[in-house]
Amino acid sequence: MKQSTPAMIVSGVPYEVTELEGEAPVTLAEFGGAITMTAHGPTGDHQVNGSGESEHDGAVRVHEKDHEGTGKDVRVWTVTPTPEHDGFVAAG
Q: Which residues contact 46 (CB under 8 A, 6 or more apart)?
């Protein structure tokens, strides 16, 4: 079975979360559980399928998975509110 290479991202650089389950996210708690989010940054738009942990210290860790949200971890994103509190960013 051929495995695809994960899309390149810039590690540690915040990517703007533009969609969560097809809509703009409103609360950090929405990132818990199985999710699909779109993150936009210097390497373009990336669809992230995975599983978010519970909010802890103002952040949620999202474990990006291969195979459309199942399988092995590809990377871990840390999602936090933007400093202006009008959106969210994710750093992988």
A: 7, 9, 15, 38, 39, 40
Burial degree of 61 (CB within 10 A; 0-12, 13-18, 19+): middle
What pTM was computed for the model? Answer: 0.87
Rounded Cα distance between 2 and 19, Å, is 29
| pLDDT tens by residue, 46-89 | 999 999 999 999 999 999 998 666 678 889 999 999 977 689 99
Backbone region of residue 85 per phi and psi (left: phi > 0; alpha: psi in -120 to 50; beta: other values): left
34 membership: H or E segment, kind and range:
strand 33-41
User: Virtual CA dihedral for 40, 84, 77, 24, nearest 10 degrees?
Assistant: -60
pLDDT tens readout for residues 10-44: 998 999 999 999 999 999 999 999 999 999 999 99
Rounded distance between C-alpha atoms, residue 28 and residue 74, angstroms: 22
